Amino acid sequence: MEPTAKGMDTYTIGKFAVVGGGSTYTPELLDGFIAHQDEIRVETISLYDIHPQRLAIVGGLAQRMFRRAELATRIELHQELAPALEGSSFVLSQIRVGLMAARIIDEKIPLSHGVLGQETVGAGGLANALRTIPESLRIAEEVGRHAPDAWFLNFTNPSSIITQALIQHGGLGKVVGLCNVPINSQRSLANLLGVGEQKLWLDWIGLNHLGWIRDVLVDGRSRISEVLDLLQKSPDEEAHSRFPFELGLFESLQMVPTYYLRYYYTTKQTIQEVLSAGKTRGEVVAEIENELLTRYKDPHLDVKPPELNQRGGALYSEAAFRLMFSLLSDRRDVQILIVRNDGAIPELPADASVEIPCVVGAAGPVPIARGKLPPSTRPLFEAVKTSESLCIEAAVQGSRRLARLSMLANPLVPGYEAAESITDELLQAHRVYLPQFFEKGSV
Amino acid sequence: MEPTAKGMDTYTIGKFAVVGGGSTYTPELLDGFIAHQDEIRVETISLYDIHPQRLAIVGGLAQRMFRRAELATRIELHQELAPALEGSSFVLSQIRVGLMAARIIDEKIPLSHGVLGQETVGAGGLANALRTIPESLRIAEEVGRHAPDAWFLNFTNPSSIITQALIQHGGLGKVVGLCNVPINSQRSLANLLGVGEQKLWLDWIGLNHLGWIRDVLVDGRSRISEVLDLLQKSPDEEAHSRFPFELGLFESLQMVPTYYLRYYYTTKQTIQEVLSAGKTRGEVVAEIENELLTRYKDPHLDVKPPELNQRGGALYSEAAFRLMFSLLSDRRDVQILIVRNDGAIPELPADASVEIPCVVGAAGPVPIARGKLPPSTRPLFEAVKTSESLCIEAAVQGSRRLARLSMLANPLVPGYEAAESITDELLQAHRVYLPQFFEKGSV
Amino acid sequence: MEPTAKGMDTYTIGKFAVVGGGSTYTPELLDGFIAHQDEIRVETISLYDIHPQRLAIVGGLAQRMFRRAELATRIELHQELAPALEGSSFVLSQIRVGLMAARIIDEKIPLSHGVLGQETVGAGGLANALRTIPESLRIAEEVGRHAPDAWFLNFTNPSSIITQALIQHGGLGKVVGLCNVPINSQRSLANLLGVGEQKLWLDWIGLNHLGWIRDVLVDGRSRISEVLDLLQKSPDEEAHSRFPFELGLFESLQMVPTYYLRYYYTTKQTIQEVLSAGKTRGEVVAEIENELLTRYKDPHLDVKPPELNQRGGALYSEAAFRLMFSLLSDRRDVQILIVRNDGAIPELPADASVEIPCVVGAAGPVPIARGKLPPSTRPLFEAVKTSESLCIEAAVQGSRRLARLSMLANPLVPGYEAAESITDELLQAHRVYLPQFFEKGSV
Amino acid sequence: MEPTAKGMDTYTIGKFAVVGGGSTYTPELLDGFIAHQDEIRVETISLYDIHPQRLAIVGGLAQRMFRRAELATRIELHQELAPALEGSSFVLSQIRVGLMAARIIDEKIPLSHGVLGQETVGAGGLANALRTIPESLRIAEEVGRHAPDAWFLNFTNPSSIITQALIQHGGLGKVVGLCNVPINSQRSLANLLGVGEQKLWLDWIGLNHLGWIRDVLVDGRSRISEVLDLLQKSPDEEAHSRFPFELGLFESLQMVPTYYLRYYYTTKQTIQEVLSAGKTRGEVVAEIENELLTRYKDPHLDVKPPELNQRGGALYSEAAFRLMFSLLSDRRDVQILIVRNDGAIPELPADASVEIPCVVGAAGPVPIARGKLPPSTRPLFEAVKTSESLCIEAAVQGSRRLARLSMLANPLVPGYEAAESITDELLQAHRVYLPQFFEKGSV
């Protein structure tokens, strides 16, 4: 948390539910509760998961962590959703339908057509969304029934699509999507400029995993030129790996493209990288997860193990705590979140999800008006958002036709033939999770 | 200032220029500098006025006030604009072209046609704007030349129109319009609910002097129903006089209309009030001003005299200091200001001025996206903004035709005949201030 | 019909249903079928009315007229809707809920508050709409059931609101609103310029009974200046009475306002006229209708009697036949009709009804893009359309609150007190037609 | 011309100027004047070209053709623009800056990066535009000076971009872009359905060379399903080659994509085709042109030679004559043209060029409102239009940065590296035509 929070009140959460509580990420979150105990106390953490083993392992570690921290927080483990949610004031969703096995399929099928497969962007992200939307909507329905006043924090990927599906079809008013890209970008650029993180104001426009930083302000003064220059010349490795783009692109855009834009701006190279890596990221993560779960089982482990950092969720709990603290304290600070657009980006529909700076008070985030999009960003905004919106309709209606159009609209899918083949193969491969596409009469 | 500012740094302003420094309001502002000396120190205050006597009187009082406060602030008096502005980091404009005499004409000519005359709304506001736009643009030009990095704070009425003229034609990037209605409304509703002023979040949408409060949130919870109820039943006189509307209107709107909407919602009564008062507000204020100036002359007076409160600018300096503090400290809190719309209200043009909640950091206010307008507010938004925009074009082009259309568009001007007669009579009466309408070839 | 239709095919309509067939206007329509027999033959005309006497009288005249014309058209009289509609390919609606008695109330209650009462505009128009919307939607539902492929031609007033209610809530795709103001305006201006009616191209923008002619083109050349000049100087009485505005208004607008705008531009005079007339227009028409019905009863009458012209529907059947001929022949000519906006006027919602030039082929009218509205027209467009849209929601939901807001939004209703009183008195007076407003729980 | 034009008046054009009159296409146009002599007579045809030999050859053939047709039309040949334009009432532009040699470069440089090079779409189209915009604006300026009332008909490719550049920067009000794709598509689909061409109504939305047919109406009835079916099953070769798409795409879109969309929907195949052809289209056309010019030289040739058909401009003069006839006769029929958008497609800027159905009277084409875009078309609309708009700004400002962004925005250019390299190589290769990019200070 930022320094200004010091000396403020401690807020109490009665019950905090984690859907997908058996995730290997969970200890990161638990560690956050321990680290932020002066700001937020939680009485009960309810971990829900459909995988009993994972749940038991992570649940055990959780109990040991809180015991060591001498906190009275009660840990509940649930395989049924209703009791897990009942009476919660926060629900955090971090599910992965089909686990790593399904993710690896999302990666490999597109790759077999020479097309990028990835968990959140391109064909892989769409496939992931098709599986995850119905389950997310089922969770939202249960939240509406058992914890109607709860804040629903969505970390489930692809967060852009899942958050929009929840906004459009979830029937809940209090939904926010979260991602650690903005907070990491902010920290990285602050380090690059050698100023405190809170001094930076990022003029960020984007969808989740499709963001541009139009300007970097320090004390109200634009530092974008200096940032673009440093991103070329500085020896800061972290910054280079976070913004892996070449000089010409920075100069042409006059903005800082954020990490995931590499899939669009340097498509060939990223496909080449994946192909030459031998393993997909899913395959690597599957191994890491196995090691982590083994580590978590150790009855002597009672802190978040350092190996978790390899998993890739840096500052994920930090982002969650910043948000929760502002919701609890009516803080009204500015955070970059995934929310209902509501005209903030006038070119996009009001009910689209966007990732933009919001003022966060106790009534939730309110987006800041961003004005007209820079022309150079419009094609990607439009293509990705159209692809996402078609994907949601495809999932809700179980329409193969719309799934193909969603794939065709995606900028990483080159042409109709690829769109059709990849869609059909992915639907077939994930058939067990996608019954709505195989019902009689679906088109 | 709010409690959270305590313990923060003191910021220094090198030079602060007041255009219209001979105004009887000025001591309110000076008093603010004295009261807020822990947050903001000013080295030089430069008072500019074209009226030498007023300037001398107010300047004398200023010096006595700062002397008594034991502050080293230097007071400069100027009748030339360039040196007054040179090197300022803030310029506050509070001019009145033609002084009270012109205002009284703005009130009386419409009234002679049975139409409301008032300083900021209706026919009188438009006439005031026609006189004030060219002068405001001249000032902006000089600011661009002599204090190009300064913040331009506009208190000059009608602030909605003047701020928009500055945005569209002033050539300055750093312009903010200010008014004390939002801060007074906030305080009044906080008192009504018995909560601290900073606890309230007003979901305010509006143009200056045309605002609605869609919701009143306390700790994130809607209290609008309770507010509407209290506005009927509470014995709080201040609240009743600030929101002088009847139950049916509150119930129909399901919003709190702010003060100046009485001219639109209860037109007949407000005209009747003015007529039965015998004197116009301008005539009353002229007397108050004379008394104040006499009082200011008193060489023993070295504080803001209590009589100034009758003048009607309650919390005006408070609003200015809140804004300045956030601009200086990069505070990023939410304030209701008059700014470039930029899509915040999607139904209005991007370059229209609107009065809405903004996040205020050192780079200036950024408006919060307000989403679609409630249908019941659209006709007034549209009519008043169209009238304002036509007025600006009329003033800039010196076009009688556009001035008439501006008048015709105004919801307080009933029909074309009134629009034509009132326009023509006002142009004639203020001919000396409006040479552009009387040049050969103007239409 | 225009000369180009000569020599074209004759089209046959199997069944043509008239809802409100007992209207005194009906003989005008019948006369149209006789006059246009070379273009359009109708096998059966089905007259439906809930008033048996009127139906019998008009039905008798109809039979005599067709007999005299030696046409084999069969005339059916119905008091049940289903059989009247069954199998029709055109349904023309011209109902008046509550007949002249209700209209007179619509006129008198507003007038008692000093506010204009009129059949289509202002408070009277809204009251008329509140009564007529539910009945129109009931008819639409029956058309959907019994004549699903029929074109629904709406002449029922207020046509702007009724057509929009049908578009938004009627469930039919083939709805067109019609009015005789555009065709009469076209003819009048053609006469004024001394050119053939078909030579004129009117650049018309509007809602029904709220239209402006931005330009008058002849052979592609703008003649608007000449028209504005002639509207002042020409001795053409018909033109003056059709465009009863003064020079200043023409010069300010640089457009031709159409007839019904007089209620907005010269409000005071029109109220004065109505008050000094002693009788309302409804009272006058009630007398004319009685005389007409007496005349229609005459068993020797077998043509449209000349007295019908006093009733005020000049060229009404002409407009209907032009439309029908283009729908039948896929003609693709341009006609000014009341249709779904669909972006033609970008400032208004897509599903609003607008009155604009459309290309009319067999698939129905498609509006021409009109570009941005002239600023001077925006306040009236916005206020009237908002008032209409709120009226439709009020009628559909039975919401007194929305009815009051609709009244408040209307530019002819000055302030909230008048809006509330007039709404409440009209709802009470028409209580028998408005049960939805008096059900338990309605707000 | 369509049958309805029969028996109508003959219209006379005083002077008709062809800019790029030495084009091998010109005899097609001349043949049109001969074929349509009953509708349109032209007194003088002024051929302007900077290439004296071509001008002499084509001019000679022109004189022989008119002599043979026994028409008194005077043929003028000009190498100076001013006298060529002076007093014209129509100016047709069909220039090609750098002739085929430049086109071949436009094709080959992108291909060397594995990216499609083509005269109007993708990287090649942008390069062509960069060369052609300044020249087109120079011509427009001269038209404004020497033929200010003329209609400017643009056939110059890429017509989408050139027409928009003329709209935004050309200073002329009477500009229309033309292409033969719509007229050929209409004819092809009419043949496919076996109905007369004039019976079809194509619900066409598009930019030039980026069009979709949302529906095909015959007598007001949708025939789209039948068309999609026939496009698979019919033996009609012409239709297959005009709409070369597979079943899945038709079924997914539920629209008919027009020819040039193959570059986007089947990118890989089209690149493969070009590569395997050995020669680019430009190289083929260069040979055809040489043969044609040789043929044109033949002093015995006095008709349009059949070989011209290989050149690829089928129905090009037919489209021009339809347009001219409607402009001359105030016909008000519907034609698919390239015009200022003006809200017809609400998602695109008002001053963008779009290719849509327009009503064409003597005052010029007015677009029909198309409503919201189908989601599946939005990414291509947005990407191509953004690319085009950036290209225009790049050409006008001489900005390499904007040229790269234009290339990057184009859906056929994969990623930044390709965008940068291709841009830089094309600018270098065409350096002689692009001085504005090589001036000091250009960025």
Protein architecture, described:
- Four copies of one chain form a homotetramer.
- Chain A has 443 residues and is α/β, with parallel strands linked by helices.
- Chain A has a domain at 182-269.
- Helices cover 47% and strands 17% of the residues of chain A.
- Chain A has 17 helices and 13 strands.
- In chain A, the strands form three sheets. In chain A, strands 3-2-1-4-5-6 form a six-stranded parallel sheet, with helices on both faces.
- In chain A, a hairpin with a 2-residue loop joins strand 12 and strand 13 (364-367).
- The termini of chain A are far apart.
- Residues 1-6 of chain A have low confidence and may be disordered.
- At the B-C interface, helix 10, helix 12, helix 15, helix 16 and helix 17 of B face helix 10, helix 12, helix 15, helix 16 and helix 17 of C.
Percent range for β-strand residues of chain A: 15-25%
Largest beta-sheet characterization of chain A: 6 strands, parallel
Number of helices of chain A: 17
- Indicate the overall shape of chain A: globular
Which ranges of chain A are low-confidence, i.e. pLDDT below 50, for 5 or more consecutive residues? 1-6
Roughly how many Å is the radius of gyration of chain A?
21 Å
Instruction: Give, in spatial order, the strands making up the sheet with the most strands of chain A.
Output: 3-2-1-4-5-6
Q: Provide the structure class of chain A.
A: alpha/beta
Mean pLDDT metric of chain A: 95
How many β-strands of chain A, per DSSP?
Answer: 13
Greatest interface and its participating residue counts:
B-C, 36 and 36 residues
Order of helices and strands of chain A: EHEHEHEHHEHEHEEEHHHEHHHHEEEHHH
Summarize the amount of helix of chain A as a percent range.
Answer: 40-55%
Oligomer: homotetramer
N-to-C CA distance of chain A? 49 Å
